[in-house]
């Protein structure tokens, strides 16, 4: 592939080669069941990283990212994720990351967590942004579209829903995961 | 028009009734001033776009979520129903659960768009069934205006679906646009239940999933030209003229159609004859001034504010030959009462009605493709009429296309329950959601309510808003007639769910914002359909009603009070189409008098 | 006048209108969500009308007994694409260069410098130009307007030679009517004779370039060229403006709030298998759309109803690609490639259509 440098564009790019972003994506793939291309395809990776960093005490997110095995590693991170979800400190954060990807929201952490690890004024139930609402993966899982956005066109609702299993991207993502690409 | 223009008519309120009046009157050459209590932010493309963004970013997605109120024109919010500390002063015993919006465009900004006609029998409940009140006019009187209203607000439907329960149409008539395609969910449900029989009292009814008439743009018939988005800019090229095409299935009729494929009153106002129209937003009518000798209205006092957040305002008086109140059933009554115009009948504010409604929700055995399409495209309305109405309320079912969004807050709530409750993650979480979300089914059951003197809007000097205007004080209760209707409706929805194999998942604890009411050993959790009616009732005598069949005040002959407040009863149809028809009828009479 | 040649010309017109759509869609979809609302409305309004133009051209072709084709490697446009008048259009994200190209497409008089082949957006990404089908059937017309003028004259001559009834021998039932195609940008005219054919061709030219003496088309809408001028100058027109630059308020054009898609992307550029799969999915959808449109133009107008949801599916799939940085690049992003999937299979299934009719 020939790719030429484009110096007219700013160098920042979401989810590019940034190591921390990569690690966040690996964790997110394991947490959500969505592939890397699908997650990046929301255009929200950077937004979510920033939102999490803003609300959590320093180091908590990095601790979570470190807890998922080496990158690149094998097939699935199911065992890693199970232990993270069982962890009193990392579990609630990981669940919030799932909710964020699916719903575009930040959910107030449990009181016990807040007491033990710190309270941020940003730790409240809220929609991360108007774009995050529209990018929620729950709508993709439903075979639908976010209410009030990404209309499907006149009469689309009358057609049978697209079977989820036919998502090619997902099939590719799963076979890649199985092959232990990363 | 100039500021000091001499007006023929002052209209209070830029909702559907005010806008339709303004359109008709200005086009007949009459000079019209419209006073709108709220801002006109929905009037331009960028303003409307900001409302859409507000909805996206709002953590609640209820009917009001796109339409923040101006402090000086406060409005009820369904989020306040349970707490009772909203705009309404709720005196119970049951909370009144509906809301409306005080902005240019009014509550049509967030209505569902269903545009049913009332049944012929709805106009004569007293005569036929010995309950409620008769209207001073009948279906046949209103029928030509229904046709006009269907064209004005742009209704999509097929006569072939709608001619039942006594509703008839003149030979050759059909709606201006073809019906909105039924949802896949409607088709699945119809295949399962069409023709099933249920009994109410002595009568048997065969149920059928039936397409709804809707004020959403579809494929036009004949030369009808669908009306697009409103984009009234003071200068600059209006870009949004190309928006507002056919309904594109945004699944957000309530709270906001992002492309304005659904009717809102701004569209009618935009079609008014501009040279004869002046609209003043952020102008709250505070008092109607009446000549004590003749009883004629001689002006409307209004408060104009520059900043929606600051109570600073100036007071003005608008004068004209005739006056139209089109401010909403509650606001009309409030303004009359605040002006000391409670009338000889004592009926102002009395007889407040709504459609208290139940939700039923469940999981279909197979995918119905939930969360797609207009919020509702069909319903079961075979139980809107029948002799059972002598003993209990009629009702109809809206079939939702938005899963359990309205009831539990799905899909967010479904995701949360899978992640936090069932501890799912990764591919299993995704698969679980893919399999369950598209199976979510929701009915709304709108139940009829009869007028009662105990249900009313009043004012109390102790309760005022930032401009010193009274807040509505609401007394409201659900009587046995309505509650028995709820019981019958519950029985029917359970039969329908069983027939269709839908697993009943109705759990009011998951919809904790809804008030509850007990009846005969059952507890019903209800919500309001936003259908306020009956506060300035029309009738055939000044002793028993506020306005006559032309919606003209008995006591103040140059004052017209428009809207569902004029309804003696409301049957089971949502009121917009009927009040639009009444408004067009009143406009015709006003034009004859003032322009003739 | 040879009717076969006339059909070839009209087929070329259908392809011409089709070929403008992917570049507009790339610009539209590359806008980052939450930005450029007015720009999106402008581009969208033009796309909708280009689709109408394609329908109008197809109706004229059908009216003379032709069969519009949109599928297969012979008819699906490839990029960079050379229009009959020599203007080259690329698949580009929303950027000043794309706007300049759009202005040139819509108005041959536009003073436009052809894009510098060394420009960073396209250097190395213009392997070969793909000429429009029209260049095979017509000596190069100076402008698109001249292209349509030639068709118009040919129609008139053929009608004179053969008689209108003989020329307009197509099955009226194959015309696309407003029952099946309706968008806010106008409604299709049914073509049955010379007058209605000329009216359809006039509307195509009128909406694009406008009447030279006015910025507005016959319906009072800004002609496409002037809509794009608003993007170039980041201002809207006032009613009182003359044909110069617009003088109205700014419209929030932000060329930075855009996904930096590589120019003229190809599926083969995507070496990452997951990305390649996403691109293949989008191309299948694009090809489905073309199959549905072709069926819609050839006696199954109800297929145009399914084409609408297909197009929105293509949008969603394109948005996923556009938000993905190229893994080996880190700066520029993937994008929809609008490539034919190579499946000349059976007609689309009709059974899904029940609810729509």
Overall strand count of chain A = 2
With strands numbered from the N-terminus, the spatial order across the biggest sheet of chain A is 1-2
User: What's the tally of helices of chain B?
Assistant: 13
What is the overall shape of chain A? globular
The radius of gyration over CA of chain A amounts to 18 Å
The residue fraction in helices of chain B comes out at 10-25%
**Strand count, sense and closure of the main sheet of chain B?**
8 strands, antiparallel
Characterize the structure shown:
The complex is a heterotrimer of chains A (182), B (596) and C (357). Chain A is an all-alpha fold. Chain A has a two-stranded antiparallel sheet with strand order 1-2. Chain A is globular. The N terminus and C terminus of chain A are likely disordered. Chain B has 596 residues and is an alpha+beta fold. In chain B, 23% of the residues lie in helices and 17% in strands. Chain B is built from 13 helices and 21 strands. With 357 residues, chain C is an all-alpha fold. Helix content of chain C is 46%, strand content 2%. Chain C is built from 10 helices and 3 strands; from the N terminus they run ααββαβααααααα. Chain C has a 3-stranded mixed sheet. In chain C, β1 and β2 form a beta hairpin. At the A-B interface, α1, α5, α6, β2 and α8 of A face α2, α10 and α11 of B.
What labels describe this entry?
B: 596 residues, alpha+beta, 5-stranded parallel beta sheet, C: mainly alpha, 10 helices
Summarize the model shown.
The complex is a heterotrimer of chains A (182), B (596) and C (357). Chain A has 182 residues and is mainly alpha-helical. Helix content of chain A is 49%, strand content 2%.
What are the SSEs and their pairings?
The complex is a heterotrimer of chains A (182), B (596) and C (357).
Chain A: H1 19-32, H2 36-40, H3 45-55, H4 60-67, H5 78-86, H6 90-103, E1 105-106, H7 111-117, E2 126-127, H8 130-134, H9 137-141, H10 168-179
Antiparallel strand pairs in A: 1-2
Helix pairs in contact in A: 5-6
Chain B: E1 9-12, H1 16-27, E2 32-35, H2 45-57, E3 89-93, H3 125-129, H4 139-153, H5 159-162, H6 184-193, E4 197-200, E5 203-206, E6 210-211, H7 265-270, E7 277-280, E8 283-290, E9 297-305, E10 313-318, E11 322-325, H8 329-338, E12 356-363, E13 376-380, E14 395-400, H9 405-408, H10 412-421, H11 426-436, E15 440-447, E16 456-458, E17 473-476, H12 480-500, E18 503-504, E19 516-519, E20 522-528, E21 559-561, H13 576-594
Parallel strand pairs in B: 1-2, 1-11, 2-7, 3-17, 11-21
Antiparallel strand pairs in B: 4-5, 6-13, 8-9, 9-10, 12-15, 12-18, 12-20, 13-14, 14-15, 16-17, 19-20
Helix pairs in contact in B: 1-13, 4-13
Chain C: H1 3-29, H2 37-63, E1 81-82, E2 88-89, H3 96-106, E3 130-131, H4 134-137, H5 144-162, H6 164-167, H7 194-209, H8 224-233, H9 273-297, H10 303-322
Parallel strand pairs in C: 1-3
Antiparallel strand pairs in C: 1-2
Helix pairs in contact in C: 1-2, 1-5, 2-7, 2-8, 3-8, 5-7, 9-10
